[in-house]
Amino acid sequence: MSAHHAIPLKTLLSTTLALVVLTVVTIAVFYLNIPAPFDVVVALFLATFKATLVAMFFMGLYYDEKFNTVVLIFSFLFFFVFIGITLLDTLFRESSISIW
Amino acid sequence: MATASNGNTLKVRYFDIDENPKEHYLNAEKGLKSWLFTVDHKRIGIMYLASIVLFFAVGGLLALVLRTELLTPAENLMNAETYNRVFTVHGAVMVFLFIIPSIPAALGNFLLPIMLGAKDVAFPRLNLASFWIYSIGALFTLVSLAVNPIDTGWTFYTPYSVQTGSAVILMTFGVFIMGFSSILTGMNFIVTIHKLRAPGLTWGRLPLFCWAMYATSVIQVLATPVLAITLALLIMERTLGIGIFDPALGGDPVLYQHFFWFYSHPAVYIMIVPAFGVISELIATFSRKTIFGYWAIAMSSLAIAFIGSLVWGHHMFVSGQSELSTVVFSFLTFFVGIPTGIKIFNWLATMHKGSIDMKTPMLYAVIFLFLFTIGGVTGIMLGAISVNVHLHDTYYVVAHFHYVMMGGTVMAFLGGLHFWWPKMFGKMYSEFWGKISAAIIFVGFNLTFLPQFIMGSQGMPRRYYSYIDQFQTMHQLSTIGSYVLGVGFLIIAVYLVHSLIWGKKAPANPWGSRSLDWMTSSPPAHHNFNYTPVINNGPYDYHKPISEFTLGIAEDHEHGESVEKAKEETKA
Amino acid sequence: MAHATGTVESHVQHHFKSSDQQFSSAKLGMWLFLFTEIMFFGGLFVAYIVYRAWNPELFTLAATQLDTVLGAVNTVVLIGSSLTVALAIRAAQFDKQKQIINYLLITIFLATVFLVIKYFEYTHKFDMGILPGAMYTFEGIDHPKANVFFSIYYMMTGLHGIHVVIGIGLMVWLVLKAMKGAYTSSYYTPVEITGLYWHLVDIIWIFLFPLMYLID
């Protein structure tokens, strides 16, 4: 019955605490006025960390079949493919043929 | 004795296949309701089959109307505006209503659980919901045709799709809904392949059709939601004017093309990868040979799914996207040729020194190899930037994708339909008429689309109801070819319907296949197999004589009785 | 309804061999569905990133119109609701029928709080003329594409809001079923699946909050 793992109460509560603390940190970092683009990098790093906590402990991926984690990772991978290749266009529209 | 994955020991016995069973899935339940609200994957597959055949007929008739208009440069049947609507509807119906659900939803639904030795797909009710969602989506598109047929082309490019007076919202909302049907089918198939394989059916024993369906389902699940959000934003653009895609409000129409093709290029592989799966089955069966390069074919499907989602921008070489991305997309596009080439060579190697039996399905497989290779190679040519700029939006492109979609997917679909027809309905069709119509279709197809390659390379643009006089001979050849094609399809319709009523009863395994779908009766029992089969052989073990080719029994489906008892029943 | 009939419990559908197989199939199916949800929202995130890369100054200007405090409160509210839905699943795993219902009701309450706060945010903006799309009339942001930022804002938070509403609907349905004692330690798949969905709604907000409200 490995799929039916009950997540310990302590884990759930400490995950919640960590998420709230990280939210406070995210806001604190905002008021520190870190120069761009590092403000976005820090904010996204914190958000990703929070999302990972939710996925591992609230959604139980830590205890679950590993293939479910693979599915989640692939979804982010394909999102990055989408945005990454689109940016190759939108960020470089201004370039002329001379750069080649 | 065989050991299942959960460690339980299963007793393996052999049983004979029930030839011409009195009870099967077609007569297990009666009445219209037993079809419309069935959760049986076989019946859902048949309902899909009926729907897509209907829409293929609609799209095909529209194509004949288009070709008739093009007999002369003059305005024969319709004006430019009507022509725009007709080619848009032809494209949208063929893409969204016919070809995307064609092999996966119709043949896939019917075959996948049988090939896995399962009783049904993982979520049967979701499967039914998926059919109904498809029907509702189709209804929306039909209503849009009644209201004000769309004239944007099947790609719904902004800003024209925001400005036109035709029923864009109804049409795109219909496609949006059908997208969910596609997503649910994909999810269902992936879970089914992962969780419901019969004991002994390892990943390495999966029929290649299942691998192809797996790759297709992955694309359906990853790309279709992007189509959904694209169309949702397009609808918002028309209703609210959100300005994300509309340049008049500060938006970027090229971004729309990125969104659209992020789905629609992988969607091309939703259309063709299942066809590869069908062809693998046909070629192995009718060459009487173990498939050459099993893992190469299986993995190349997944490689196509992955690489195919990196190349969408090759539809946008002249859209004004950056040169950098143009170069990258062109470079990546060539890579798709590798896994596709791997498949072609493996199929040829399978046929090499095989004892080829040229039955109708195999004839279609050979036609597929011929036509699809032309379609694929011209695709590689179009992936080269300099050639593409010359040929962009000409008949060359039209001919290319018809060689892939019709010469590839439709031929494989016809091959698959003829191959599994006896399994589906328990009746044999006329082999003579099968071959005749395959030949007519082959001739008609090439007559229709070869001239289009030539016209396109000479500069005939697509999507015009008129043309300069120099193209008239080519256009007329093409139109005559389309009539020949129409006759071919008509003959198929006649003899298939004829076979349903007057056809000879089909044996369980008329082709001598080694695959699991032929190890059950024709038509299959209500739950596919009367016993949970234990798979001892690979699907392409043609080196073993068929008399040795047997299945084990793990469990009696109907009564939950012991294995020993089941064995006695089969002996008796 | 986990009354045993014969050797197989009745919640196991006929095509599954065991309850475990059915449970893990349902879970895999849900994860694949979440995959599609990520790609669905992914499209909007792509639009966001593209426009932010084009107009970084616009995003800095426009984000000043969003209320950081309300955004932060909503973040904490959703985190809390994620905890309670996880606790509801835990209650089901330990056969505590009453607790399942209570935790689900708290989750529904928190989700409603989220929507009420969102409602006040929206109406406040509507009053200022920050309306979605072509109806945009606000003149406080000196940028020609200010309307596009708010279109993206409304699309992203709106789609997220729709998901919250759907989540509430699902949980109301779960409560009604739970009142009839439908969920026990041997069968609680719908609770588990809805939980997964709800956590994803939380995750998306975790990304939306810094990307929308915290730009400088």
Question: What's the layout of helices and strands?
Answer:
The complex is a heterotrimer of chains A (100), B (572) and C (216).
Chain A: H1 9-31, H2 38-58, H3 66-90
Helix pairs in contact in A: 1-2
Chain B: E1 2-3, E2 9-10, H1 32-36, H2 41-69, H3 80-116, H4 124-147, H5 160-163, H6 168-195, H7 208-239, H8 253-287, H9 294-307, H10 323-351, H11 360-383, H12 385-391, H13 395-425, E3 427-428, H14 431-457, H15 472-502, E4 504-505, E5 531-534, E6 552-556, H16 563-571
Antiparallel strand pairs in B: 1-2, 3-4, 5-6
Chain C: E1 4-5, E2 8-9, H1 19-54, H2 56-63, H3 68-93, H4 97-128, H5 146-179, H6 189-213
Antiparallel strand pairs in C: 1-2
Helix pairs in contact in C: 1-2, 1-5, 1-6, 3-4, 3-6, 4-5, 5-6
In short:
The complex is a heterotrimer of chains A (100), B (572) and C (216). Chain B has 572 residues and is mainly alpha-helical. Chain B contains 16 helices and six strands.
Number of helical elements of chain A = 3
Poorly predicted ranges of chain B:
1-8, 559-572
> What general form of chain B does the structure show?
globular
- The N- and C-terminal alpha carbons of chain B lie at a distance of 22 Å
- The main sheet of chain B orders its strands as 1-2
The domain count of chain B comes to 1
Helix/strand order of chain B: EEHHHHHHHHHHHHHEHHEEEH
Radius of gyration of chain B: 24 Å
Largest sheet of chain B: 2 strands, antiparallel
Strand content of chain A: under 5%
Number of strands of chain B: 6
CATH class of chain B: Mainly Alpha
Regions with little confidence, pLDDT below 50 for 5+ residues of chain A: none
- Number of separate helices of chain B: 16
Identify the most extensive interface between protein chains.
A-C, 46 and 47 residues
Tell me what the structure shows.
The complex is a heterotrimer of chains A (100), B (572) and C (216). In chain A, 69% of the residues lie in helices and 0% in strands. Chain A has 100 residues and is mainly alpha-helical. The longest helix of chain A is centred in the last third of the chain and has 25 residues, at 66-90. By secondary structure, chain B is mostly helical. Chain B contains 16 helices and 6 strands. In chain B, the strands form 3 sheets. Chain B has a two-stranded antiparallel sheet with strand order 1-2. A two-stranded antiparallel sheet of chain B has the order 3-4. Chain C has 216 residues and is mostly helical. Chain C has 6 helices and 2 strands, in the order E-E-H-H-H-H-H-H. Chain C has helices spanning 19-54, 56-63, 68-93, 97-128, 146-179, 189-213; strands at 4-5, 8-9. In chain C, a hairpin with a 2-residue loop joins strand 1 (4-5) and strand 2. The model of chain C is unreliable at 1-8 (pLDDT under 50). At the A-C interface, helix 1, helix 2 and helix 3 of A face helix 1, helix 3 and helix 6 of C.
